[in-house]
Specification:
Layout (H helix, E strand, L loop, with lengths): L1 H48 L14 H28 L3 H8 L3 H12 L6 H13 L4 H13 L2 H10 L2 H29 L7 H4 L1 H12 L4 H13 L3 H14 L4 H11 L3
Helix pairs in contact: 1-2, 1-7, 1-10, 2-5, 4-6, 4-8, 5-6, 6-8, 10-11, 11-12, 11-13
C-alpha cells in the first residue's frame, strides 16, 4: 500500500511538472509573438520614415494621473504576461530546475541571467514578477537580478532600434553601459547577498539531496512518524507545499497520537 501510494504521488508530481512546463512554454511563446510582432511593426515604420511613429513624450504629457493611465494603457499586455509567467514559476516549477539553470555564482550566473532576460524584452515594471518568482524558487540573486536588468537593458528590439536611430558611437556606448549594469551590478549585489543571506549558503539543488534519499528509503522501507515528519520539513524547505501537505495528511491520519504529529500541528498553529 505504501509503495502504491508513493508511485501514485510520483506520477502525479510528474504530471503536474509536465503541465507546468506546457503552461510556461505557452505563456513565453505568446509573449515572444506579442513582443516581436510589435517590434517588427515599429522597425518597419522606422525603415519607412526614419523615425518612430509614436512620440515617446505622450507617455509623460498631462497630469500625473493621466500620464500614469497612459503608460499603463501601453504596458498592460506585457505586464499581464510578466505576472502570468512569474506565477507559473512560483507555483509550479520545481526549485531544483530553477537552481540548476540559475543557481550559479559570479559572472557565469550573471551571463546566464542576462541571456534569459534579453529575449523577454519586458520593461522593468513587467519583468519584476518574473524576478520575484525566480528568486523565491531557487535562483541566486545574481542570476535573478541579471534577468530583471537584462530584459529592458539588453532588449534585442531596443538595441536594433538604437543603432537604427542613433549615431553608431552613441549606440555602442549605450550597449556597453547596459552590459556593465546587467552583468556588473548583479555580481556585486550577489556577493553581498551570499555573505548575509543564509538562504544563499547552499543551492536548492544541494538541499534536495535529503529528499532523494528519503524517497528512496520510502520506496523500500516502511514509513513511520519520523520519516513522514522529515518529509514535511524537507518539502517545506524546498517550497513544494503540495507534497508537504501530502506528507502532513498522512502523518495526521496514520499516526494521530505520535509526537511528530503534535509537532506538526504546533507548526501549523504557529508558522515560522
Amino acid at each position: 500500500m505504501t509503495q502504491a501510494t508513493t508511485a501514485t504521488t510520483t506520477r502525479d508530481a510528474r504530471t503536474a511538472q509536465t503541465a507546468a512546463l506546457l503552461a510556461l512554454a505557452t505563456a513565453v511563446s505568446a509573449l515572444f509573438y506579442y513582443k516581436w510582432s510589435a517590434s517588427l511593426r515599429v522597425w518597419g515604420g522606422v525603415q519607412a520614415n526614419g523615425r518612430l511613429s509614436i512620440n515617446p513624450a505622450i507617455l509623460a504629457s498631462g497630469s500625473r494621473l493621466a500620464a500614469t493611465l497612459t503608460y499603463f494603457g501601453k504596458i498592460w499586455p506585457a505586464l499581464t504576461y510578466g505576472i502570468v509567467i512569474g506565477a507559473i514559476v512560483r507555483a509550479a516549477l520545481p526549485p531544483t530546475w530553477i537552481a540548476r539553470g540559475l543557481g550559479q555564482r559570479g559572472w557565469r550566473g550573471a551571463l546566464v541571467g542576462g541571456a534569459v532576460g534579453a529575449p523577454l524584452m519586458l520593461c522593468s515594471c513587467c519583468v519584476t514578477p518574473v524576478f520575484t518568482g525566480l528568486y523565491e524558487r531557487g535562483a541566486r540573486l545574481t542570476s535573478a537580478l541579471a534577468v530583471m536588468l537584462g530584459a529592458p537593458g539588453l532588449n534585442i528590439a531596443a538595441l536594433i532600434l538604437t543603432f537604427a536611430l542613433l549615431p553608431a558611437k552613441l549606440a555602442a556606448t549605450r550597449v556597453i553601459a547596459a552590459a556593465i549594469v546587467v552583468l556588473g551590478l548583479p555580481v556585486l549585489l550577489g556577493r553581498i547577498d551570499d555573505g548575509r543571506n543564509p538562504r544563499a549558503a547552499c543551492s536548492v539543488e544541494e538541499a534536495a539531496a535529503p529528499r532523494a534519499f528519503l524517497e528512496r528509503y520510502m520506496e523500500v522501507g516502511r514509513t513511520n512518524p519520523e520519516t513522514l515528519w522529515l518529509g514535511v520539513r524537507i518539502e517545506r524547505g524546498l517550497g513544494n507545499n503540495a507534497q508537504a501537505q501530502h506528507y502532513a495528511q498522512r502523518l495526521k491520519s496514520e499516526y494521530p497520537s505520535a509526537a511528530q504529529t503534535k509537532e506538526l500541528l504546533e507548526s501549523e498553529r504557529n508558522p515560522g
